[in-house]
Write a structure and sequence with these properties.
Chains A, B: Keywords: Aminotransferase, DNA-binding, Pyridoxal phosphate, Transcription, Transcription regulation, Transferase. Chains A, B: This is PLP-dependent aminotransferase family protein. Chains A, B: GO terms for molecular function: DNA binding; DNA-binding transcription factor activity; pyridoxal phosphate binding; transaminase activity. Chains A, B: In the C-terminal section; belongs to the class-I pyridoxal-phosphate-dependent aminotransferase family. The structure is a homodimer of 498-residue chains. Chain A has 498 residues and is α/β, with parallel strands linked by helices. Chain A is built from 18 helices and 16 strands. Chain A folds into 3 domains: 64 residues, Arc Repressor Mutant, subunit A; 131 residues, Aspartate Aminotransferase, domain 1, CATH 3.90.1150; 245 residues, Type I PLP-dependent aspartate aminotransferase-like (Major domain) (Aspartate Aminotransferase, domain 2, 3-Layer(aba) Sandwich), CATH 3.40.640. In chain A, 44% of the residues lie in helices and 14% in strands. In chain A, the strands form 4 sheets. Chain A has an 8-stranded mixed beta sheet, sandwiched between helices. At the A-B interface, helix 1, helix 4, helix 5, helix 7 and helix 9 of A face helix 1, helix 4, helix 5, helix 7 and helix 9 of B.
């Protein structure tokens, strides 16, 4: 015994010795009431200092794995760990096997089926991948983030590390309320809940509004954000999709659907700015038209503000919640995940005060509160004035890539229709005879991948000739080379079809 | 105009000037296509440097609130913000009022009703409060936490700030798997999901296992953790409670309930170590007995390991999941929130691999992933060997307070029955004629508050003569004084009842 000890990582040696002996006890190599080697012996056997062994033995006693008899030494404590595998009444623990697949409900099943990451495309090393619309981490100003953390810890470190509030970190809420006010939002009668990113905010809102006893009904742009489709389905909503036009949702179609006697929509989900996946910005005129329609039919609107900040040109367009003025029918969900740091899981829900009051209790029941460290880093980062500086830098860089990607598509994919006014991706529509899953297969073989567009559509079989091109994390030469390759594969497919 | 400008916080002046002008535009004080004052003029009016104004004007243009005409100056951009309140077709936005209370479902309603924070006791300033079982933040070793953050940021800051994985931060998972193995757990066939604390882990497990089409049935200790009761109810479970004995759950009663033909339990929820609220540790013998019973009736066990680490005496007792050996019927949910920092919202679910695979997809659908900053700080803190050092310090301090509290109860509350073998609280049972809500009212008037025990019981009207005394955040003299006061009030109540 004690021959197989080795340091496994760079934790203090005393801790590694303690864990090593724990294992011997757990495995039964050291029996209850057995005497441990003296500290001198063990230090010799393990080739570590005696003080190290003394510290390790103290730790073992603290954790209740051993007991000391003064003047005699340390002994292994008696502790039942597992059931005997072979005891008379034949209930050895290995006998206990539950068929979990059979125990899990349809929600758990659908969560996997609808999980794009699990059904997703795996990129080989060296592949040019247009699948991500996450920010380019090379742009991150780590120094400013570190400073924000250290500044905040110095001010109230102990508070940050203890429990916070379900509603969110007060200074951040105050900051974001003013931030939204500066976008033209009338905040009277409204309140804010901080969530762990957009996704949690959206899921909490759905769980509060989905009807019981019947399936919910939601109306949204088609195509739209696949996570929104997933969560709507998981919460049991039937989804009606409205086609997109160059300047946003087709308002006539929207009105037609709303007029139908048979339709009673519980809510609408809209992404007016840099819509995912089309990248289209809804015109100011359409925003007013949409608000008037939703008002007439009294349908709550969940507005996704996910990358409003990534505006490269044109005048600022106020979010729908601003257009609604004092009206309380819009639930705005914001996040800086795309423009700043996705790793900081912070989003916010801005809505009617009565609604927020309930959402706060749901939030508490689910996660108690969002990471205070994340919230306080974000707050101090904003307060230090880093946001404007960073966004300016990010916009310049992304705008350049956006224009390069656009130019390459126009040059190498003349047969496709492009959309995307900003953000971190472009959306491509090919002639109907091109199946982008076939195209993906062909491109993957050439070391290029992208996201087929059909998964953003409501109905199976829609958008099979579309794809989303995320450029934020692709280098300039890979953008050029990748789109060239896609172009070649498109022409091969078209040839093959002649 | 421009008379009311003042610096509101310590953000860079240029940003505050920019926001100030934004407001004037949003409010309509500056109209579309109106020319802004020259940078020289405005710097005079606002008494800030001209360069500040130049930077502010650049920012306004970047954000699309203004446009520049070379050689002429900056002009306000045209942007629709809100609907006219008084336009012909009489759909002024204030007309849009949704009755949210009517739109919200029973889940949203119950979330508020069952929200202890909303129904909770408000402490006046200067009150001696025994209501908290959160750790004492004075013990936090901020220096080690800061170092952990800086160390990790230096190694992979950019990775930490971009998207992570739903399953969790890999180095932390590996660390915790070994940590659980050292508690005697057989990890073969098992896997781990990192969650935003115990609460999210518990809620995700329930949402995966609650039956559809009928109400779920859960069995647990009575009393038990009120958050668990809340989430079970919110997920539609009927709860059967089994009384506690000095050494844990009443196994005979448990067997009686399991035997009943009419009972088909979907799951059991148990807290074998430092049970909340009684603080009782389930004996090793009972752990084996419970595992055998659950095995016989094939009932999945959710084991709450919430403050296993706060052991003050006696031998280490392996968690139930260790007792179950290779059996896959136990779902262990762990957290360091009580022993380390609640602000770091990190917990873990250790269970059968097939189950974790589904829970991972549910986690992704709800919050994408747990804060990587929180996870990496915790990981590096553990790796740096701070945990053992801190727990040693915390145990010593809490053990002292625990013994002081116990001694005071024995001295000043002779008529009560005490329980609590460790952790951050004691549980008191008074003669049945004492109503602890009445007692709380009397004590509140004397500046002392605690948590009445009835809210930890399954049925209305149970445990009305019990209370929980959390001592972790109360000073020594307040512990003495507070318990003295409670004692006096008890005797007054008893007198009054004669």
């Amino acid at each position: 015994m004690f021959q197989d000890f080795k340091l496994v990582d760079d934790r203090p040696v005393a801790i590694q010795v303690k864990e090593y002996v724990k294992r011997l006890i757990i495995k039964g190599a050291l029996q209850a009431d057995q005497k441990l080697p003296s500290t001198r012996e063990l230090s010799g056997l393990l080739k570590v200092s005696r003080n190290t062994v003394i510290a390790a033995y103290e730790g073992l006693e603290d954790d209740g794995y051993t007991y000391a008899i003064p003047g005699k030494g340390s002994y292994v404590a008696t502790m039942v760990t597992r059931l005997a595998e072979d005891n008379g009444d034949s209930v050895g623990s290995s006998a206990w096997q539950i068929d979990w697949k059979a125990r899990m409900n349809e929600y758990a099943g659908s969560a996997v089926e609808l999980d794009m990451m699990k059904q997703g495309i795996r990129a080989q090393k060296g592949t040019i991948s247009f699948t991500s619309i996450a920010p380019d981490e090379q742009l991150f100003d780590l120094g400013d983030v570190k400073r924000a953390f250290m500044d905040r810890m110095a001010i109230e470190g102990q508070v940050l590390l203890n429990y916070g509030y379900a509603k969110g970190y007060k200074p951040l809420i105050d900051y974001l309320m003013r931030y939204m006010e500066n976008k033209g939002v009338d905040i009277s009668g409204k309140d804010m809940l901080i969530t762990s990113g957009f996704t949690e905010g959206f899921d909490i809102v759905l769980s509060a509004l989905r009807p019981y006893g019947r399936r919910g009904a939601a109306i949204c742009e088609n195509p739209t954000h696949h996570t929104a489709i997933k969560n709507l389905k998981l919460q049991g909503f039937e989804i009606t999709g409205i086609p997109m036009e160059r300047d946003g949702i087709d308002v006539e179609q929207l009105e037609k659907e709303l007029q139908k006697q048979t339709n009673h929509f519980d809510l609408a989900y809209l992404t007016p700015s840099y819509h995912n996946p089309t990248g289209i910005v809804m015109s100011a005129a359409k925003r007013s038209a949409v608000v008037k329609l939703m008002m007439r039919y009294q349908i709550p609107v969940i507005e996704d503000g996910f990358n409003e900040e990534l505006r490269y040109s044109g005048a600022h367009i106020a979010p729908i919640i601003a257009t609604a003025g004092q009206g309380n029918g819009v639930i705005y969900i914001g996040s800086f995940s795309k423009v700043l740091f996705p790793g900081l899981r912070v989003g916010w829900v801005l809505a009617d005060r009565a609604l927020i009051n309930n959402l706060e209790s749901i939030k508490r029941a689910r996660t108690i509160h969002t990471s205070t460290i994340d919230q306080s880093i974000l707050y101090q980062y904003l307060l230090n004035g880093n946001f404007d500086k960073y966004v300016k830098k990010a916009r310049t860089e992304y705008k350049r890539k956006y224009e390069l990607t656009k130019a390459c598509c126009e040059a190498y994919l003349p047969e496709t229709q492009l959309s995307g006014d900003g953000g971190l991706h472009l959306f491509l529509t090919f002639p109907s005879k091109i199946d982008t899953h076939e195209l993906l297969e062909a491109c993957t073989a050439q070391g290029v991948i992208f996201t087929p567009g059909d998964r953003f559509f409501i109905q199976e079989g829609e958008g099979t000739n579309t794809l989303r091109l995320g450029f934020s994390r692709v280098t300039d030469e890979n953008i050029v080379q990748g789109i060239q390759i896609i172009g070649e594969q498109v022409r091969d497919l078209l040839k093959g079809q002649r």
